[in-house]
Amino acid sequence: MTVPSFAPLVLDPAAEVERITGWMRERLRLDLRKRGLVLGLSGGIDSSLCAALAVRALGAKNVFALFMPENDSDPESLRLGRSVAETFGIDSILEDIGPSLAAMGCYERRDAFIREAVPEYGAGWASKIVFDSTITTGGYNISSLVVRSPEGEMRKVRLSASAYLGIVAATNMKQRTRKQLEYYHADRLNFAVLGTPNRLEYDQGFFVKNGDGAADIKPIAHLYKSQVYQLAAHLGVPGEILCRPPTTDTYSLPQTQEEFYFALPYDQMDVCLYGLENALPRSEIAVATGLKETEVELVWADIAAKRKVARYLHAAPLVMAAAT
Fold first, then answer.
1. How far apart are alpha carbons 37 and 20 in whole angstroms?
2. Which listed residue, of 122, 152, 224, 252, carries a Cα 20 to 30 Å from 199's Cα?
3. 0.90 cut: is pTM over it?
4. What angle do CA 188, 192, 193 make, to 5 degrees?
5. Cα 243 to the chain's mean position, in Å?
6. How would you classify the pairing of strands 154-158 and 142-148?
7. How confident is the model over 15-62, as pLDDT tens digits?
8. Buried/exposed code over 14-32 (b: 16+ C-beta within 10 A; e: otherwise)
């Protein structure tokens, strides 16, 4: 992890930590009326920072962590999540959600949709969904399925709209099952559920509705991803996590976040989003990111498109007004 060279994204970590933790304590006491926080620890940078902030705000005894691996999880995620809990003295529990997902048909449903594109897909195969960058496609988000056979052969195929939606729908069971367990433990402890999205994810809808998007408090949704790394380093998050590339850890093949959702690596996305939010000239953003001005325009258009999708994800249920 390096400090970003784009000056507007550089924080005073100590001051920002104090500001966030003070807000967390106040909201927990005045609004939520809970005595502690529950969160899922994935071994990633966002949940690790949230755990560190929660401990700083409330003390370790008022923070409880869940490790929730499933059949497709990278074992490294569990190891790194446990290292965070140990580093900050957080009580935790392992909840393997693989059997529950299998019982609900998560894997079977997903594989059935995959077989629409790859009929031989079955035991011993692995897969992920990827998107071609909006920069290389001229502004279009084109999804594909990548599969690996038991013999190690890799193949990339286009998906029909129905197959894509089916795979995503089945996969979303993972995030919703995890959130159900977080709320179970929150209810039994009289704690609140801590959500872990950063600004990129929150702004552009990189979460599952009523899954990892559900929470009682989201303390880092205002932070750009590069700022997450700054605060995590300041609070002593383990170095292995600071150096680990961001990953979804959702599919059975390794998958980076830019492969699946964002048009660029997080450091460039941060600068593009900041430039759009603050109406900076595209020429300035091009210099800061190393992109062409036309590419900056494509990224900004992609952000706008994702924000349209995010409106539904953020929206509360529609309620009919009483007759007058």
1. 15
2. 252
3. yes
4. 100
5. 17
6. antiparallel
7. 999 999 999 999 999 999 999 999 999 999 999 999 999 999 999 999
8. eebbeebbeebeebbeeee
